[in-house]
Specification:
single chain, 226 residues, mainly alpha, 3-stranded parallel sheet, 8 helices, globular
């Protein structure tokens, strides 16, 4: 639709097979772990190189175009598939999720103050309301008729759940970068899934969606925790 309206587009792809099948007008394939389409967190030079490669595709007169970013662009050791919930042993957690989320929000506020940017925002819920998001997710995971006033009427509940999950995970990860700036991406993922109360809650949210009869719902669950 954007291209038909005269707006040129380019996508950054992390799954080559999907891109080859869909054949968008322009695409850049990156070899980075899922969830890191532009490369390592806080590596501005690497991210700019990826964006420059993507923008360069606009010079191509016709498509579809699929350009590779070299493997050498990824500089973190042992890069591969991102660490997932199913591959991490769960340790006992002490804090409840709402208290933990409040603590991580304070660290996240430091991240925003230092960097002036954040990937939090897809849900439209202010981070100061994330304790409410936690209660919403807890009620949803428990099978209740949970909802939030911030959910737009045209956004289906499972989609809003996914957006809330994406936001709270981003808040945790950015807050963790303040607490442990030298920690690897894999270790941050192991911390999220193995040592936080949020990791347990997200597994429960995934289980509720996965129990539905909807194939699209199951895909949503796969994106929440796998």
């Amino acid at each position: 639709m954007l291209e038909a309206a005269g707006l040129a587009t380019v996508s950054v792809s992390q799954v080559r097979e999907h891109t080859q099948k869909i054949r968008p007008p322009r695409a850049v394939f990156v070899p980075f772990p899922l969830g890191m389409p532009l490369g390592a967190p806080d590596d501005a030079e690497q991210q700019h190189r990826v964006l420059a490669t993507a923008l360069e595709t606009f010079r191509t007169p016709s498509g579809p175009v699929l350009v590779d970013v070299p493997d050498s662009e990824w500089e973190e050791p042992a890069a591969g598939a991102a660490i997932q919930a199913s591959s991490v042993d769960v340790a006992a957690t002490v804090l409840d999720v709402a208290t933990e989320a409040f603590t991580m929000r304070r660290a996240h506020e430091q991240w925003v103050a230092r960097k002036g940017r954040t990937s939090v925002g897809v849900s439209g819920v202010d981070p100061k309301r994330f304790r409410g998001v936690v209660r919403f997710l807890e009620a949803y995971a428990a099978g209740g008729d949970a909802d939030m006033r911030e959910r737009p009427e045209d956004i289906a509940l499972p989609v809003f759940v996914r957006r809330c999950v994406d936001d709270i995970k981003a808040m945790y990860m950015e807050g963790r970068l303040v607490e442990r700036p030298d920690e690897s991406a894999d270790d941050r993922a192991r911390w999220l899934w193995g040592e936080t109360a949020l990791g347990d809650l997200l597994r429960a949210v995934r289980d509720r969606i996965e129990a539905s009869d909807s194939e699209k719902g199951k895909e949503m669950a796969w994106g929440i925790a796998r």
